[in-house]
Amino acid sequence: MAPSSPRNLNWLSSSEDQITPWVDLPPELVSLIANSLGLIDLLSLRGVCKDWRLAPSTATAEIESEPSTKPWFILYGETENCTLYDPNDKKSYSINFPELKDATCLASHQGWLLLLREGTIFFFCPFSRARIDLPLVPHQEISNHIAAFSCPPTSSECIVSIINRCDENTMEIYVLKKGDTTWAKHSFERNKWNFGTIIGGIFDDKKETFYYLDNSSKTLTFSLKETKERNCIIYRIVHDAPDPKTNCLPFYYQQSYFMDSGLQGWIELKDDVSISTCGATTPGHKYNILISNECIESSKGTANCQMKGIWIQPRFFQIPTTHSWLI
Fold this sequence. Notes:
The chain is mainly beta and 327 residues long. Helix content is 9%, strand content 38%. The strands form 6 sheets. It has a 6-stranded mixed beta sheet with strand order 5-4-3-23-19-22. A hairpin with a 3-residue loop joins strand 15 and strand 16. Residues 84-251 form the KIB1-4 beta-propeller domain. InterPro entries: F-box-like_dom_sf (IPR036047), F-box_dom (IPR001810), KIB1-4_b-propeller (IPR005174). This is F-box protein-like. Residues 22-53 form the F-box domain.
């Protein structure tokens, strides 16, 4: 390596007679380095110069997907100013995400957010600013909406599901597969659904089934397998099953994750601030983990400020400018 003199720090030397600028490293080597970096280091590498920004086009900060890595948290309000919290290194960052202004996050999975804003619905990767717009959802009222998607929207296998509880007797599920131009609507009528407030959704690819959880230890399943009649089935979740033949959930789930994480004390929310959080699907050692949504009321009982939060895997995805949901 070159001497430690400050004027030589940007140069790489293989011999005394040959010195090469760091920026002239072969793109293959830059990509190899980029593929081994976490998110912050990857963003720093991309900021060195134009060539380094273009070279690591396949780097996604995959190292952040280790089961031992905690998801990050985005805190935002009514503006584009956000605070990003990394609970692994206990660091926070101020950053602007204009896409989050006036937006509601319906789902978070593998570094992608599914956002609903002013009647439009789109996928958004905050750290690369990649955006993929989806066809309009027929039902625009966002109350009681929860969503889940099978895999990153860049995949041809991506499937999105949005569940909406219209009233105590009617449940609607909208499904959109990659390349579709319209949502498939499935309505289910039942005399008083015995199902509480929906707090999260997840997809199991082996069973080709979406699972939606409520706040009273129940799960509602919706299978994508072709049958004569699609149906929603509600199961009660028990932690100590008396019957060994009892079906097991194909995922883990965590409620009160925000409260249990200690993040509330780190953020130092004021007494008159309430916060609603969007959970996320994160990798586990055996099964994926569903972090459920939460609503934390202000300690005063009445909130003068309503904040929003999103749990997210810190991943980076670049997409071609020509990429769309239809491709």
